[in-house]
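Holo prediction. Input below; ligand is nicotinamide-adenine-dinucleotide.
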Amino acid sequence: MVLAGLVGSGIGPSLSPPLHEAEAGRLGVRLAYGRFDLDDWGLPAGAAAEVVAAARAAGYAGLNITHPCKQVVLAHLDELSADAAALAAVNTVVFAGGTAAGHNTDWSGFARGFEAGLPGAPLGSVVLLGAGGAGAAVAHGLLTLGAGHVRVLDLDHPRAEALASALTARFGEGRASAGGSVATALADADGLVHATPVGMAAHPGLPLPAALLHPRLWVAEVVYRPLETELVRVARARGCRVLDGGRMAVFQAAEALALFTGAVPDTDRMRRHFARL
Ligand code: NAD
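Structure of the complex:
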């Protein structure tokens, strides 16, 4: 029996347990995937360190780490993958050979999902709306895939500036910038990635005026609940190639499951399952 789980706050509705357990089962691996919701104990983010220590002692294969714990666990791990270290964020911990190693499958999940869902999409100039945790992972993915330039926009402008500076330091001068109007930025962009919470059930609506979505633009959504956000629906109706947020969610889970089990998940099967959850 392989043991794994998710650590975070407010994770009751997470789709990770059924997604991981069902795919593991189909790969012939008996996996039990638990939820460790710090809210259940009224504990702060820092308590994730206790869960990591307990899971390691109990023989867990690994853990997924989500909001608000992706940074606080860094100090409690023995090793970090190069990308997790660069992003200073861990969403997957693997216990093996007596060590706890931190990985980040958010960025690679976005990148693999992007390649699978929008094959051949031009990456010369991309606008990223939202500079939070998801936006940082997406930007790392875009630039790793070879994007020429990523323009970061956020209502919190200092946050966008900080992300653009970090990206420039990591990927080189001229690869990222922040600020400007969304209208100007989109006019000659190849693509838009949306990484704010707008469009979630609790924050319905469009994050930008529909008229800015021109048909030469591809649009990648990061919000996955609902899968068909207003942005996805409107962008498709306006003739844009569209990628929904389920791709990133499924591919980050598939990569974590591979790290936990050594098996190779079937991402198409996981996507079909995800859409039914
Ligand atoms: P976050 O709170 O860290 O960051 C969100 C950012 O969006 C903030 O900087 C905020 O200032 C900005 N913002 C909010 N409204 C805006 C607007 N109208 N215009 C411009 N900027 C705006 O959140 P996060 O963790 O980055 O998550 C963002 C979304 O991504 C959530 O809906 C989350 O569920 C989703 N997400 C999806 C995946 C996936 O696998 N598909 C993974 C992680 C997060």
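The chain is about 40% helix and 20% strand. That is the main takeaway for now.
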